[in-house]
Amino acid sequence: MLGEMTASISHEVNQPLGSIVTSAEAGLRWLNHETPNHAEVRALLERIVASGRRAADIISSLKSLARNTKPERDAVDVAGLIDEAVLILRSDLNRRQIALRLEISRDLPQVRIDRTQILQVIVNLVTNAAQAMADGQAWNRTLAIRARESQQRVVLEVEDSGPGVDPKVRERLFESFYTTKTTGTGMGLAICRSIVEAHGSKIEFQSSPYLGARFSFTLGTEPNGQDTI
Fold this sequence. Notes:
Blueprint lengths: L1 H30 L6 H29 L7 E3 L1 H18 L3 E6 L6 E3 L1 H21 L6 E9 L2 E8 L27 H11 L5 E5 L3 E9 L9
Parallel strand pairs: 2-4
Antiparallel strand pairs: 1-3, 4-5, 5-7, 6-7
């Protein structure tokens, strides 16, 4: 349990900490210009503050998950949550030359969730998809994020055009500490599974050789302000 907790924190806070360092370095470059651009520095400082708060939220969320504490859930707009994930990951997707396609149904009902935890799931799934396409040398790097309503639940999907998942590793894909990456911790998908299951759902997975992989899960909607999860 201690090992999983340590690896989880290390894995999850890496992205916001990386964003803090990148923003700080960019801010220093703007200040070192002959005519410092204070507007750019202000924007970067605001991004640093946001990333720092997100790292703190992630740690708090993981501690609650490890303690099996019932998470605090709020009514959340799914489209807005996806926009937030895209904002976090946009620079990384651009760096990997990945085209992003959003297919979000209109007028989606709100869902009652732990916002930080579900944001973690979306960020992890998108990051894994981006890495799979980059590592697999996919010629058509397209990533799709979808959200639609089905049977009083909101279905979220993340699909990539990468090489797919080797059938030999599929059975162990969600195991803690299992990874096929030399620098991986093997905790990303394990964390996603735990969070989604804590929200009364499970992650569905489909993959075809050279046609990519698709991960999906559902979230209960909140009709008339009542918690249905």
